[in-house]
Each structure stands twice: as structure tokens, then as C-alpha cells.
Amino acid sequence: MLPRIFASFPQPSDFTVLCEPHSLTIDRAGYGWSEPGPLPRTFQAVASDLHNLLREARVDPPFVLVGPRDAASHIRVYYHSYPDEVAGAVFVNGTDVDDPNVKIPDSGKGGFVRTFGSWAVPVRRMACWVRPSLNRLGFTRFANLFGKPRNTDSLDLTEEQQARLNDLSDNATATQAGEACAREEGMQQVRTAGNLKDVPLVVLVSGSGQMMTASHDQVEAAFKKYRLEQVPRALSNLSTRGRVGLIDSELTKEAVVRAVLDILGVAATAQGGTK
Question: Bridge partners of 197?
């Protein structure tokens, strides 16, 4: 049996149509239309949610796991926990574990760090401590009604589709997942998870997706180079069958589908079958 495809990815309807008949997309807990999950929201919690969801839906492995940015970490932890279920993976502009030796420019820092500077860590801890109470009282959902949705990868969407996707990414009817509150614990889980052994892996990276605009600031230029060159190479080295797919322009859904089809071709060859 060839692998099924699981994608945690924007505009799932387009992606799903191109990858039918065996594909599945979800909003993880606290995003889109999904309700928040139990705390803490670590990478292991996300991986366990996915495993339980697939089991309850009676979707049998093996799977090709596909996702953008932090989903690379979710997939690594999932493979560590359920190695027999993963037949391949596609990372899209994936992130790696934090590198303390890399200087991060202001443009690459989170809102807490830009706003509070050296006070960011204690302020975040305080916010995370009071967050459950605010959630129970409904304040977080109310505040989200006035917030500006974060931008997401467009994948050739129309203006109307992009607006809809941004709304789903920060849907005010569900509180946000709160994964930043467990970031340090989640990063340690990723380090413990280790590599992907010989699992077929494609690491897609787009120049536009990594903010590759011209910069005269040395710190920012070095950070952009690190994100475009070192991170994808490090991620591809997680598997003995990993490779980097560099896209000079905007990321397209066709590029993601081609990467998935490459993985399926490898899986079919390994099983002595056909695509």
C-alpha cells in the first residue's frame, strides 16, 4: 500500500485536490476552526494529537507528512514517537532548532522580544501564567476579534482566498494555541527526537519565503543567508535520503505537489510497485 499524505498546510483544498485520493489536511489545536488543546502545547503534544486523530479516523499508515516552518519540528517528533508510520516527509521553508551562535536581527525577532527587549522572557512567562484564566473568561477570543491576522504563505492564491486563509490562521472563534509558552520544552523534544534515519525527505525553500530582499545590514544579511543556506542543508542532513529543493521565486502549490510525488515514487520503488 502506498503512503497516504498528511498536510498541515495553508489552503488545504487546492493541495488536497492535487493529491487525491489519499490525502488529509487538518488545523492543529488552537488554529483555524480547531478548539484549543490541553496545555502545555509542546511539539510532542502536536504530534500526539495528530497520531490520535488519524487513529480515531481509522486512517492507516504509512504517511507522507507535509508542512511549513515549525511543522518540520512536529514531523521530527512524530517520527521519533511513531517511526513505523512515516514513509516520507516534505518540509516547506522549515525551521530548525534555535542556534545560540546566530545573531538574530530585529526583523527576525518575535513581538515580545521587539517590544520588551531583555524583559521579554519574564513578561512572556507572566502572560503564559495568566493566559488560561483569560481563556476561560473569554477575554482572549474577544481580543482576537480586534487583532490583525498574521500573513501566511500565499501559494498563488487570489486576494480573496488570501484574506480567507489569513482569517482561518487567526480565527477569533478559537483561542490561539499558546505554543510559544512551551517553546523551550518543545525545542528540547526536537533535539531528543534526533534524525529521520533513511526516511525520504525533501526540504523545499523559497528565496521569497525566507525574506531574501537586499539588505545592507550585516547582521540581517548573515541571518538571511543562514536561513536560506545553512538551515535547509542541516534539515536535509537529518535523513540519508534527504535533499534540498531551492525555489528562486514564490512558493507554489505545484512545487509542493511535485515534492510529494517524488516521495511517493521513492516509496513505490522501495515496495517494488509503481506510482
Answer: 239
